[in-house]
Predict the structure.
Amino acid sequence: MKIIGIETSCDETACAVVENGEKILSNIVLSQVRLHGPFSGVVPEIACRAHVHWLTGVASEALDQAKIAPQELGAVAVANRPGLIGALLIGVAGAKSLALALGKPLVSVNHLQAHIHAAIMSHPELAYPFLSMVISGGHTAIYISTGPGESEMLGATTDDAVGESFDKVARILGLPYPGGPSVSDAAKKGDPRAVDFPRPMLGPDSLDFSFSGLKTAVLYRVRGHDMKNPKDFPESDIPNVAASFQEAVVDVIVEKALRAVEKTGIRRLAITGGVAANSRLRDKLGKAADGVDVFFPTPELCTDNAAMVAGLAFELVEKGEIASLDLDAFAQV
Ligand code: KG4
Ligand code: ZN
């Protein structure tokens, strides 16, 4: 069965065709980074308008690259939660229209469960149950995953998502959006021990996260405490602040991952979402998680994409989970 996946939950307009949940025939991602860059973050209104303009073209391209006619599709899948509500609605409307026009089943997919499923698509040997962390620009949470689309949350951020904190720190340091790659690039030339930023752990047992205090600590380090008279911050200090901030974030994620392993006794861990691309995190987690098998999806399945949506949809179809044409979108899970 060939399924087209549609993903518009944030600032990527993406469509993909996946066969039997595993063979990716096409995976088109049109990034809106260029549109949001001048604002140092995603502007929902701009994201929605871009999805409207691009979605049909991206869907056509996905079918063309997969070399299939629309009638050969077995189902139409769409990420309908969680995300920017206006952005999700455009994907949902597009998916409903396509399903109705083709007379094919519609499948609704949870974007976060799709991120987790990306780890299985990249590593079919990854067996349930496993621990999974979704660390991205919009989400930061840790789960125990027991089956396709079945994950129970163990902890989540109480304020900023981790990718969002990279984006905000990039803005403070005058580095380009998105902040993850630009901060980690700057960090390569810096000393991670130069500034002792806080590692917010929220108590000895907590699996929740908090990054807003860390971001504020960076702000004070760069501008001082008097926002009306910000102090001069020499450009030469950027690498040290970037490296020290990144180190604090990575230490928190590694500690929470190890706590989850300790608490559950599960020694398989999947790390997904855009921040999973961070090389310092990959290094440190690899070394710290002794005796734990850590799985990262391939880079193109880490960041937002529609192949993960189509891949998980296949499993949902197998379970008989078909959506009706009055499907709605939801900003929260
Ligand atoms: O998963 P994703 O593409 O979109 C969301 O669902 O949010 O993640 C994007 C986020 C951005 O905040 C970006 O700054 C961050 O992932 N990111 C990184 C890196 N590459 C992307 N954060 C840290 N280090 C990276 N190398
Ligand atoms: Zn995402």
Q: What stands out?
A: The chain is about 45% helix and 20% strand. The chain has two domains: 2-115+302-318, 125-296.
